[in-house]
Amino acid sequence: MKKIYLWTISSAFALNACAQQNPTIIKYAKLITADDAKKHLSIIASDAFEGRETGKPGAEKAANYIAAEFKRLGLQAPVNGSYFLDVPLTQNLLQVTDFTVNGKVFSYGKDFYLTGTYPDKNLTANTVVFVGYGTEAEISAIDLTGKILLWINEDKSEAGSTPNTSYRMTAARTKIVKNLQSKKPLAILAANPGIAAALSRFGNSIASARLTIKKDDAVSSNPNAPVFNITSSLADELLKTTGITYERLKVQSAAKTTPAIAANTDIVLNYHTEKKDVKAVDVLGYMPGTDLKDEVLVFSAHYDHIGLNPDQNAKDKVNNGADDDGSGTTGILEIARAFSQAKKDGHGPRRSILFLGNVGEEKGLLGSEYYSEHPVFPLANTIADLNIDMIGRVGEEYIGKPDSANYVYAIGSSMLSKELHEVGENANNTYTKLHLDYKYDDPNDPNRFYYRSDHYNFAKHGVPIIFYFNGVHADYHQPGDEVSKINFPLLAKRAQLVFYTGWELANRDKRPFVDGKTSEETR
């Protein structure tokens, strides 16, 4: 839902008054073209780059291509003379050797999945405790120590509001999980009806090895009870001996507060993790500013994707990721080209600019997380991050609409800075005149897009952000995300909007004022 602010009316006059176009800015924005974008993307999203999976040769090829372009454009290599910032990663391959319920075998990636890293365990139990929505009223009467818990991974309905039933964890549910973990159970089995569909579509990637930022072994594993995401049918099997279905218990729990229920269920749950180091890099290109050079504006996009199709029988072996996020990476290169030519012509930015190609976004925003914790330029001096993730297609909600080729979702612009929101609106009203859709500009959005791309690792440190996004489509994380389906004129126009917004931020007298609150919520 689009947010409505009290300052909207007061700022309307300012927005309408800023229709004076600057011919110098337009000159350089015109360097961002559909033809040039196609040249870049046809290389980045080609089969030769093998889907650019983090830690694999294709991602290394993409990193080298981006660095070569940064060098060609005259950008500085800011990491001790290099364009590469090493991101030390560990590959964690979870091997679930046993998950049986009353002797029935269930499969990892088909019936359940687990995220995070945990110490190796061999668990056996003859009881499962159904804890409903996990509220204190539901669990206070029973000792959960050493128990396996079955939990409804949905927000409980409240009068006057529609509950979020997505399997993606919300802030409220994150708190509930932490509270359940504090009771020292053996494991938490989080049931949601959306898990089956997610595993059907993304099971191969969900069940693949997980990458994490390398840390000391003493702190690399989560000491808390693991949270297994399970299908509703698996939940039914766990409750079979009670004679009551999972759905019926869920309805009862939603209608009233019911105490935890123990089911006599035999469970064997054994798992361990195989680890190895992985090489990965963020790619950084730097343009120093003039009188405000100590302040830095970041343009970011992730260049990684999900790699090769694990289905050996598939005709298309490569998840090319043309839109996700070859389009954003291409946009960054085009924007860098425009700024570089402006600088050569004597119109360089007052503030410094960092063009940041992030690795590991598809593995959990890892490259941007590492950069935010090991910044080459202090985050205190970073005025904003303009992040591009998927700008080359028409999202499913706009197919067939009159403005399907003239829109972009703008997310997070006013979360931390109303002034940044105004700058983005102003740039669009003056130059590109796209329809800026704020539907997902909401931390409570069930899709959780605000938490799902690299800008979030800047936002959580108090750096204002704008996330540009075309929405998901049928080819999202599928082999069909091909260059042939990209709308290059639309990609270029969206990139021009980011350029116009960035030009204003890089050259205005003051940095955007931060007047919002940071969110420490995990995605």
Give a written overview of the molecule.
The protein has 523 residues and is an alpha/beta fold. Strands 2, 3, 4, 5, 6, 7, 8, 9 and 10 form a nine-stranded mixed sheet that branches. An eight-stranded mixed sheet has the order 1-11-13-12-14-17-15-16, sandwiched between helices. The N terminus is likely disordered.
Write the layout of secondary structure elements.
Blueprint: H1 7-17, H2 23-29, H3 34-44, H4 57-72, E1 84-86, E2 89-101, E3 104-105, E4 112-114, E5 121-130, H5 136-139, E6 148-152, H6 171-182, E7 187-191, H7 195-206, E8 210-213, E9 227-230, H8 232-238, H9 246-255, E10 261-278, E11 281-287, E12 292-302, H10 322-344, E13 351-358, H11 366-373, E14 382-388, E15 407-411, H12 418-432, E16 435-437, H13 456-459, E17 465-469, H14 488-507
Parallel strand pairs: 5-6, 6-7, 7-9, 12-13, 12-14, 14-17, 15-16
Antiparallel strand pairs: 1-11, 2-3, 2-8, 2-10, 4-9, 5-10, 11-13, 15-17
